[in-house]
């Protein structure tokens, strides 16, 4: 059953918005597939292990790596959001997917070493959570744009906590990861609502990038939780 085909017309959306939503999720599917393939290549080639060793050498390497990722992410999202050419929007999305695959590679290397079953489990859990949030956004037809300001403040607080933990050498723990999963869920709900109601209909790749970023954030912390639980059981 095509749930989208049934719900979108009922939501009172125009044909251009419906076509945009379908294009966005097509781009999202390609981005997720590309991320999976790139992650597999990076792991098989040993890039994840190499980056993990590099980051273990100094805490400031991780901060620098995180800073570069944020800069690249800003550049890619800005390009995808503002470029009039669909090809340039797709390039922005592709750059972001590559950046996510690179920053995930050390985490996947850790998971493969201590809890290999956690990787597919985290993917499955993340997809279930995203599916539930997507259903909520489409079925309720509510505008969740009010979450934008709250998520922005929470995001800055989270970044500050992460940087402080690296500099001062303390662990944020499993509860921080759980809070971040909830935060990522709010981002998915916000992005989905934005796609339904507000995002410019000529920017499907940009919309897919934002939603992909939120899903990747959720996957990161779900995987961290599973790694922590596996390690505590040993």
From TrEMBL:
Primary location class: membrane
Highest taxon of the lineage: Bacteria
Keywords attached to this entry: Membrane, Transmembrane, Transmembrane helix
Cellular compartment(s): Membrane
Stretches of the chain forming a coiled coil according to its record: none
Keyword Ribosomal protein recorded: no
Cellular component terms (Gene Ontology): plasma membrane
Transmembrane segments: 27-54, 60-79, 91-112, 118-138, 150-168, 174-193, 205-227
Membrane topology: Multi-pass membrane protein
Keyword DNA repair included in the entry's annotation: no
Signal peptide: none
Assigned protein family: Belongs to the BI1 family.
The protein's name in its UniProt record: Permease
Classification lineage: Bacteria, Pseudomonadati, Pseudomonadota, Gammaproteobacteria, Lysobacterales
